[in-house]
Design brief:
By secondary structure, this protein is mainly α. The chain has helices at 2-20, 25-46, 53-67, 72-101, 104-107, 110-119, 122-128, 131-146, 148-154, 158-176, 181-192, 200-207, and strands at residues 194-195, 198-199. A hairpin with a 2-residue loop joins strand 1 (194-195) and strand 2 (198-199).
């Protein structure tokens, strides 16, 4: 029931924080992943937990990287899987917007204005009054999502793109109070695992 949800959230939060701090990374990554996996199961059964299957797949790949510390090839392949999940999350979001409403989703700005008004956040309500702002922000969002694969593979300074994705979700949080918890995990995990524009696993693989 509800107490199980709270316990799992506590386990996920504590293990996730200690993992990021560098303590017992192998075991805490596994604990965090299993907690999120169970939360996703509760979400599918009862519909009141915000967890997503693509986050579970991402975390299982991340856990496999931590446990395959002496297997650089496995680490590299697992990280590439994480990259694919990360890219597809944004691309499929942009593609679904295009398939649903076409370019008008951005050029009219009405969908964003309706969303801002519906969420009833003071800052969002303020910006919802400007059609120009809504069109500009909708266009930026659609371009960012649809072009994300190209930006990712052409960008040698990927940490900046990860930070941009985190900023994207920060804006959503401030304007609409929608946190997209799982996407924050994607962004900051990718930042922590990337050095000088290349993943630490890619570097290990090339020097092995």
């Amino acid at each position: 029931g509800l107490y199980s949800i709270y316990i799992l959230l506590a386990i996920a939060s504590i293990s996730g924080l200690f993992y990021l701090a560098g303590f017992f990374r192998k075991y805490l990554s596994l604990m965090f992943t299993l907690a999120i996996f169970l939360l996703d199961g509760f979400h599918n059964m009862f519909g009141f937990v915000d967890a997503q299957i693509h986050m579970v797949l991402f975390l299982f790949a991340l856990t496999s990287m931590e446990w395959a510390e002496n297997e650089p090839l496995i680490q590299n392949n697992a990280f590439q899987f994480c990259e694919i999940v990360f890219i597809l999350v944004y691309f499929q979001s942009g593609l679904s917007k295009l398939l649903d409403a076409g370019p008008d989703w951005a050029l009219q700005g009405g969908t964003l204005q309706i969303g801002l008004v519906r969420q009833q956040v003071d800052l969002g309500l303020l910006f919802a009054q400007s059609t120009t702002f809504a069109v500009a922000l909708s266009t930026a969002v659609l371009l960012f999502e649809c072009l994300f694969p190209i930006l990712y593979w052409l960008n040698n300074r990927r940490p900046l793109l990860y930070l941009a994705s985190a900023g994207f979700h920060l804006g959503t949080l401030l304007l609409m109070k929608i946190d997209f918890f799982h996407l924050w995990i994607f962004s900051f995990t990718m930042i922590l695992l990337t050095v000088d524009g290349k993943t630490i696993y890619e570097s290990r693989f090339k020097t092995a």
